[in-house]
Amino acid sequence: MNKNNHLVFLDGLRGLAALYVVIFHAKWFLWHSSSTGPCHEKSYPILGKIILYFFTLFNSGHLAVIFFFVLSGFVIHLRYARQLKEFGENSTFNFMDFIKRRARRLYPAFLFSILFTFVLDKVGENMGLLTYTNHTLYSSMNDLNNLHVHDLRTLFGNLLFLMKTYVPVWGTNEPLWSLKYEWWFYMMYPVLWFLSKTSIALATLVLIVLFFLSFLKWTYGLELFRVIFSLILAWWSGVLLADVYCKRLNVSFGQLSFILFLVPFPLMLYLYRIRMITESSVSLDILCSFIFVGLISFCFYLQEKKISLHFLEILKPLGDMSYTLYLTHFPIIFFISGLLMSLNPEHTLPKHCGFVLFGIFATVVFAYFMHFIVEKPFLSSKVIYD
After folding, report:
1. Which domain holds residue 31?
2. pTM for this structure?
3. CA pair distance 222, 164, nearest whole angstrom
């Protein structure tokens, strides 16, 4: 446990990322001014405009998920990187133990979210709430036109983590799409571990090749692999960070943080300016993953310099419930949104941010209590990161 104590700040970062996603969805579904686009409310007082512009900082919920991928790669590989550093070629990999731990980590809270989403969706549909008919006044909401599919094919497709490729996500729980990537990254990891054991450079080269192949059109039912390979480098960047942490790669955190802020960020801004990448571009996701590695490296560098990260460590409770929060927040916010529009004679969302704050509070409180039931009992008490 002691050797992991200085990793607690990662829980704080994970909790902040989950909260960022919640705020992103809450402002989108619970606030008229946010759902209709940029801040052009001339009638707003100065304070209202300040609040409106403040919430524009939470417009990139997708990139927060990319941060989850980076952190996932780090924590999954960490124990194995330590073994590889210590035992080298004599290191072994227990595949069944790995799968059991990964399934124990993902499935309990995931199964609860499936049931919870179904119940809340059916209540909303029976009440005739507008969000469940895709006939709201907000085109951005109506574009989510597969949000209430509850058939058996969709259920089994989600349980096998095939959502958004061969089946839609389950019901209104749109954020479930990211679990597909997590699971299949896990399924690929044993092969990547073997390659990394032989050569870190070889494993990385193979993934780079697969990443570029993902830009080609794949047929014969291989679309899933093309999609997974398109983001594998984001996850692998976290794996490489674990190798740096365990001294399998001879790079200092100071050097790494400097390089990964100096190169990707200006390049990202330049490519975005000349429209070579967009907000939904895979290339942007990969560049942002490198920046996130730089951010975490900088935190490690601060620790090396004996600079406290207590302001992140105190957020550990938020990180502990972050998975449950991520899995349950969207159906709640979606239900509240439909209720607000149905109660309003104009069928619009409130023009103030009060219900955004209420939605954030409600989802966080619900997740806090539920994670003691559907998440924490299934985690190992022997290690912090499993």
Report:
1. 2-248+313-378
2. 0.92
3. 14
